[in-house]
Design a protein that fits this description.
heterodimer, A: about 400 residues, alpha/beta, two-stranded antiparallel ribbon, 10 helices, B: about 1050 residues, mainly alpha, disordered N terminus
Chain lengths: ~400, ~1050
């Protein structure tokens, strides 16, 4: 948190972020930036969308109807073709170099939007419940992502096996009593934080339904799609609705060196269903004005089609999509050339995108975090946001 | 025993004197120290010395006198002269030297370090110090800090029961010598240096074994770092040391940043792309100074073994420019370590000479001159204060829970140490302790500062003295500031002078270059002309040859023609030859002429060279002098820079003291204010109470007056009524008397007419009698009426009086109420004011006590590190025995088919030990995963998160730790029937202390209340203490 006052202001507006990460590198040509009838364009056509003049791949018919909520950035050049490094750049807004690890978007968002609630601020939704990840770097474990499963919910959120309600009350009483004796000797911010974490845990256990996607109505489950991605997106929305600052959902695997087209045909079908349902659901609930939605990958795929009907890694000219939180809806930023082999206008990279996400949720990305007496710029100081995207 | 001066040869003496001369010239204290080392090293004596700067002449002379016995007299005289003559900074030199007495004198100097620490800590404290901790608390703390875990139940009880006065010292020594301490230091340094990164080329196990062996063998910290920073992974013994490079993939930025952060305490990462935007003293040139020392190194992987090593090239210079100035020309980095030395005299080696092993495909190149090894040397050099300051601060932070500079990797001007003198002391003494890590830890552990409690002492202070101190400090501050300002001005003008002289050198270089170019040009011309001349010469010579041949044949032809006079064709030929010869000779002549001309030209051109050369030589000799001028002005500049930095430190010290004093005073003033205001408030409240009482009394009086009035009014009414009746009686009586008088009169006149009528006479008598009676009654009534009238009058007066009184009382009441209201308002305002003063006072108190903690007058509270927490859980719950049993069982089941004679006992022990350690490690890992910061980021940041609490509250692993097993705490407690012994075991096992009476009662009551669920109650109690703050923190 840069300044407590900022955080309070944000809390009143309750901004949040959901990021859908298409792992492996989805193809911009089969999604946001189709080039039909060119030798790089592949077999699929482009279809009109709810915004006149904007066309996207025919693999996304439902998403096309939500285009008036979306913004496409078609001019990304991260110039990085390595999965790990590309992902790192997109998730942290920095190039990986040197010894310092940078916190991921989730950790940064959770810290900057810290609501001081018992709920964790940074959640990765996956198939099953898991432990914490090391993605918060210098922001510390409090902001590291916690893995919540579409099955299994949040780990350790039910009372210890065999422990009765009264036994729980008793042991908590004894713990508090021991603490109050110790606090008579010395009290610091650290002692408060540790004692408080146990109270938060108890409150969180009360709220564990938030993490249970089965509490959502069947009609919505069907709308989002009765598959892993659908459930994860639905759980994601449920979490956002209940005050969690950042949710990340992953869909894999898009690393289509072979059979790029068959594969995208299959994968995009799922994505189209879940993503369009998410956007319209958020819009219906009036949450889209305060929720930033980002669909990203570690990179795009080569315009050149290889001998296995695949496309390879491509960081030079690719696209992502964003929506919500005052991002200019129904717009397209930048463009690539005719065959999609180069950025032709308004080139941006991971740094600009990272600034943009944060500014969209009201965080001054040019400010600094202060952790343990150290000051760290929130986002890469050598770039700024894509200002025309911000309201 | 002083060194045998007579044994030293002249050469050594000269060395020493040259050293002193050097000091004299450049004020280079460090060089002096270095020379002294050289001197004694040559003399074959072990040296331990401390040199620090003092401004007092007397002190240095006294010191010199005091150490006369150990210092050669010549050195002393020289030293005093330096001190008093050349510079205003005097050198205060303590040289404890030795042959035989080396150990003793070394010990005697280090014995007092912990006392010096306390003196220094006490000297900066403004306010009280907290008390020394109890044995129980000390025992827990020292175990956590030296072996990384809480003491066992047995260790705690044994230490408490010991009665020796030196038992703390004994425990410190014993722990420092333990194998566990070496392991813990290895772990600590590993986390400092690798920050829990994932293993890449060297395993953590190998690396920690190397570190552990280093601590075990007493290797100096300097040597250790030198090994780490110079190892290329090739020498099997030092291969683990190469982890620092190899696991960073020898990536130059990664290495640069971490070398600076971890060994110099300077987080210069931002300076990679530009001068640090926040910290004015972190410069890009500093970053690239280190970078250029590691940039030539690279990760080399052997094709066959797949093993990786550090390779290095002999060429390549790092260039950089700021990202803020994309158009700026890139600068070539100067290899150097900031605050330390630059890499000078790098040999210029070319071709084969540049490499020991030349680069080729699949070959790890090794340069003749290694910049990486230079880095190891420059970083760890004795002159590099930052190197020692960093480790001194980190070791202090390790023991105290907080660095003198905090965070530990942000040593810089805007982040001054909380006690600069203490950091200086530790930094200096670490050198005299020969970089002995454990010795410094020992000294810190023995200090009172280390042994104080976390409890904030009651603030008792003499405010008047404090005020005087504040005044004094203000004066000192003004003076010191003036000194610094003046020095700064001096430094700036020295800098200007240096710049001016540098400019002259540059100009001289430019002119020289131009001049050299002119010479070269001229020489080229000369060469060209000379070449032309030599060509002409060649042509001439050739022609000459031809000409002489022709002339020879002419001679022959002439002779022939003489003999054959008539031969016409011969004559013709002769003519022909003659003409040829003429031509030829003419050509030769022409060429000779041209040659002469050309030679003259050459000479002319050559003659122009000499003056050019001499002018260039003049310029070059100028350069020499100008360079010396620069060196001199640089000396002056450095002199002021050093002096200024010393004075700035002094200024910062004064400022810190000033701030501390002002802060303490602020608290006391607020406390005084609070007391005064609360006194005022009480007097106001008393006034209000008085007013209230008065109001109440008035109220009473009014009531009684009103009552009296009522009574009086009633009485008046009654009297008035009686009066009316009586008056009516009087009137009636008057009428009766008149009637009777009339009757008497008429009867008497009738008698007069009827004289002697007896009846009439008796009637008159009767009437007269009646008249008298009536008159009497009348008189009586009148009297009564008069009296009553008087009573009425007085009663009326009384009523009026009372009415007046009542009105007055009402008025008074009104006023008193108003007054009461006013006072009540005042009381309210005063109360609010008091509250705000109270919260201000409390804030000031918190700030003051925080400052006491930062100054280490009170022990800081610090959280257990994840590994400490894991190990402490194992100890507290008594899981060791269980792990041992499990390890043995596992071994047995694995080896059940083995016959007894096949079993190698030693191997068995090793395997069981390994398996036991693995189990303990598993628990540590659980805590690391939950409590540690992300790999590759600073690990000293504390955070509590909900998932930690969820884990401790609900995870099945925690449940299994609490299950009763052999030797486990829960099992022991479940069997313990006596509530007091139960409480004793519980508290001593988990918190390493005996329970208080209240706590014993709590436990007894807790158990007594749940006889049916006793086992659960036992688990709950253990869990409650295990998750308590007292367990979580190092106090």
């Amino acid at each position: 948190m840069a300044r407590p006052a900022i955080s309070r202001e944000l809390a009143s507006q309750q901004k949040r972020v959901i990021c859908i990460f298409l792992a492996g590198g989805s193809s911009q040509l089969e999604t946001w930036d189709p080039k039909p009838k060119t030798d790089t364009g592949g077999p699929f056509l482009a279809i009109p969308t709810s915004v006149p003049g904007i066309h996207i791949s025919e693999l996304l018919p439902k998403t096309a109807m939500q285009m008036h909520h979306l913004s496409l950035i078609r001019s990304i050049n991260t110039n990085e073709n390595d999965h790990g490094l590309g992902r790192y750049m997109m998730e942290t807004g920095r190039k990986k170099m040197g010894a310092t690890e940078f916190p991921h978007l989730g950790a940064v968002t959770a810290k900057a939007l810290d609501l001081e609630s018992p709920l964790p601020g940074n959640i990765h939704v996956s198939a099953g419940a898991g432990s914490r990840r090391s993605d918060s770097s210098y922001l510390g474990p409090k902001y590291a992502s916690i893995v919540v499963g579409a099955k299994g919910g949040l780990r350790n959120s039910t009372r210890m096996n065999g422990l009765t309600v009264s036994a729980e009350d008793h042991r908590q009483w004894f713990r508090r009593r021991a603490n109050s004796r110790f606090l008579e000797r010395r009290r610091t911010a650290e002692t408060d934080a540790y004692a408080q974490s146990f109270e938060q845990a108890l409150q969180l256990m009360e709220k564990r339904d938030i993490f249970d996607v089965s509490k959502e109505p069947q009609s919505l489950v069907e709308k989002y799609g009765d598959h892993e991605l659908g459930k994860q997106c639905l759980l994601g929305r449920r979490l956002l609705e209940n005050g969690i600052s950042y949710v990340q959902v992953s869909h894999s695997n898009y690393d289509t060196h072979n059979e790029n087209f068959n594969f995208h045909l299959e994968q995009m079908g799922e994505f189209d269903e879940s993503f369009s349902a998410l956007i319209s659901d958020l819009a219906d609930r009036g949450m889209l004005e305060s929720t930033l939605v980002v669909v990203m990958s570690e990179f795009g795929r080569t315009p050149r089609i290889n001998q296995y009907y695949g496309r390879d890694h491509w960081g030079k000219a690719w696209s992502i999509a964003m929506a919500g939180c005052g991002i200019q809806a129904g717009s397209v930023i930048g463009k690539t050339n005719k065959k999609g082999t180069e950025v032709a206008d308004r080139q941006v990279d991971h740094r600009h995108l990272f600034h943009t996400y944060l500014q969209a949720v009201g965080v001054d990305s040019t400010d600094e975090f202060h952790v343990g007496g150290r000051s760290m710029p929130i986002a890469d100081p050598s770039a700024g946001p894509i200002s025309e995207l911000l309201a | 025993m002083p060194p045998a001066w007579g044994d030293c040869n002249r050469g050594i003496l000269i060395d020493a004197l040259v050293g002193i001369y050097y000091v004299n010239q450049s004020d280079n204290l460090l060089m002096f120290r270095h020379m002294v080392t050289v001197f004694y090293a040559n003399a074959g004596a072990k040296t331990r010395y401390v040199v620090s700067e003092e401004t007092a002449t007397i002190k240095s002379q006294q010191a010199a006198l005091a150490y006369q016995r150990t210092l050669p007299p010549k050195l002393i005289r020289m030293f005093i002269r330096i001190g008093s003559i050349r510079t205003s900074i005097l050198l205060f030199v303590l040289i404890a030297v030795s042959g035989g007495d080396a150990e003793e004198s070394a010990n005697s100097s280090s014995n007092v370090l912990h006392q010096e620490i306390d003196l220094t800590v006490e000297s900066v404290q403004v306010g009280p110090h907290s008390a020394l901790s109890s044995d129980e608390e000390f025992c827990r703390r020292i175990h956590l800090d030296l072996v990384g875990r809480i003491p066992t139940f047995e260790e705690s009880t044994r230490f408490s029961q010991e009665s020796s006065e030196t038992k703390r010292k004994t425990l410190i020594d014993r722990l420092l010598e333990s194998d566990e301490c070496d392991s813990y230091l290895a772990e600590t340094f590993d986390i400092w240096w690798m920050e829990r990164r994932k293993d890449v080329h060297v395993t953590t196990a190998e690396w920690r074994t190397f570190l552990k062996a280093s601590f075990g063998s007493g290797k100096s910290y300097q040597q250790l770092v030198r090994e780490i920073l110079s190892s290329d992974g090739n020498d099997p013994e030092l291969r683990p040391a190469a982890k620092f490079y190899l696991d960073r993939l020898v990536e130059a930025h990664a290495v640069t940043q971490d070398v600076s952060r971890m060994f110099l305490g300077r987080n210069i990462e931002c300076a990679q792309c530009h001068d640090h935007p926040l910290h004015s003293d972190y410069l890009q040139s500093e970053y690239y100074g280190i970078f250029s020392l590691v940039d030539r190194s690279y990760l080399f992987t052997d094709d066959k073994s797949k093993k990786s090593y550090v390779g290095e090239k002999a060429e390549g210079d790092a260039k950089y420019s700021s990202v803020f100035e994309p158009d700026a020309i890139k600068v070539v980095a100067l290899p150097k370590v900031v605050g330390g030395l630059a890499l000078d005299r790098e040999p210029l080696l070319n071709g084969d000479a540049a490499y020991k092993v030349k680069p080729a495909k699949g070959v790890r190149s090794v340069p003749t001159f290694s910049r990486r090894e230079s880095l190891a040397r420059l970083i760890t050099h004795d002159t590099n204060v930052a190197f020692r300051q960093n480790i001194a601060n980190r070791l202090w932070a390790h023991m105290m829970g907080r660095g003198l500079v905090d965070p530990v990797d942000l040593h810089q001007a805007d982040n001054q140490p909380t006690n600069a003198a203490l950091l200086r002391l530790l930094t200096d003494r670490f050198l005299s302790l020969n970089y002995d890590t454990k010795e410094l830890l020992r000294q810190i552990a023995r200090s009172k500062a280390y042994q104080r409690t976390i409890d904030v002492p009651a603030p008792v202070i003499d405010v008047a003295t404090l005020r005087t101190q504040l005044q004094l400090l203000r004066v000192q501050h003004t003076d010191q500031k003036l000194i610094c300002e003046r020095l700064e001005a001096d430094m700036e003008s020295a800098q200007d002078e240096m710049k001016k002289r540098r400019k002259l050198v540059r100009e001289n270089l430019d002119v020289t270059a131009k001049s050299r170019k002119e010479i070269a040009d001229q020489e080229k011309i000369v060469q060209k002309l000379a070449k032309q001349a030599s060509e002409i010469q060649k042509q001439h010579d050739l022609k000459q040859q031809l000409a002489s041949a022709v002339n020879a044949s002419l001679e022959k032809a002439k002779n022939a023609s003489k003999q054959l006079k008539n031969d016409k064709s011969l004559a013709k030929t002769l003519e022909q030859i003659k003409s040829n010869s003429r031509d030829m000779n003419a050509q030769v002549e022409a060429l000779a002429k041209r040659l002469a001309q050309q030679k003259k030209r050459v000479e002319e051109a050559s003659s122009k060279v000499a003056p050019l050369v001499s002018s260039a030589e003049r310029l070059e000799s100028d350069h020499h002098f100008l360079s010396e001028d620069v060196a001199e002005s640089r000396g002056v500049y450095r002199f002021f820079v050093d002096k200024l930095s010393v004075q700035n430190v002094a200024l910062a010290d004064i400022e810190r003291r000033l701030a501390a004093t002002a802060q303490t005073l602020k608290y006391f003033e607020l406390a005084e204010q609070f007391d005064r205001k609360s006194e005022q408030l009480s007097s106001l409240i008393a006034q209000l109470n008085r007013q209230t009482n008065q109001l109440e009394a008035d109220q009473l009086e009014r009531a009684s007056t009103k009552k009296r009035l009522t009574i009086q009014q009633k009485k008046l009414e009654e009297v008035t009524k009686s009066l009316t009746i009586v008056q009516k009686e009087v009137q009636a009586g008057e009428a009766l008397v008149a009637t009777l008088q009339e009757a008497v009169n008429q009867t008497e006149s009738a008698i007069a007419q009827l004289a002697g009528d007896e009846a009439l006479g008796s009637a008159v008598d009767t009437i007269q009698h009646a008249l008298k009676n009536a008159a009497d009654k009348q008189a009586d009534s009148t009297t009564r009426a008069d009296r009553l009238a008087k009573v009425v009058t007085s009663s009326e007066k009384a009523v009026n009086e009372l009415k007046k009184q009542l009105t007055n009382l009402d008025l008074r009441h009104q006023e008193a109420s108003k007054m009461h209201q006013q006072i009540a308002t005042q009381v309210q305002a005063q109360k609010e004011d008091l509250n705000s003063t109270e919260s201000k006072r409390d804030l000031a108190f918190d700030q003051m006590t925080d400052a006491w903690t930062n100054r280490f007058a009170v022990r800081p509270l610090s959280p257990l590190k994840p590994e400490q927490l894991g190990r402490s859980v194992v100890i507290a719950l008594g899981m060791n025995q269980r792990f041992r049993q499990e390890a043995e069982a596992e071994w047995k089941s694995k080896n059940k088919d083995k016959k007894p004679e096949e079993i190698d006992e030693q191997k068995k022990k090793l395997e069981i030990d390994g398996s036991y350690e693995k189990r303990k490690k598993n628990i540590e890992t659980v805590f690391v995963r939950l409590f540690a910061a992300a790999p590759g980021s600073p690990q000293d940041v504390f955070q509590s998160s909900v998932d930690q609490a969820l884990f401790l509250g609900n995870d099945n692993r925690v449940k299994s730790w609490l299950s009763p097993r052999d030797g486990s705490l829960v099992k022991r407690l479940r069997q313990e029937k006596d509530a007091n012994r139960f409480a004793e075991t519980l508290y001593l096992s988990v918190l390493n202390r005996s329970p208080s009476e209240m706590e014993m009662r709590d436990v007894a009551e807790y158990l007594a209340a749940r006889p049916q669920e006793r086992n659960s109650a036992v688990d709950e109690l253990v869990w409650g203490l295990l998750t308590s703050l007292e367990f979580r923190f190092n106090h």
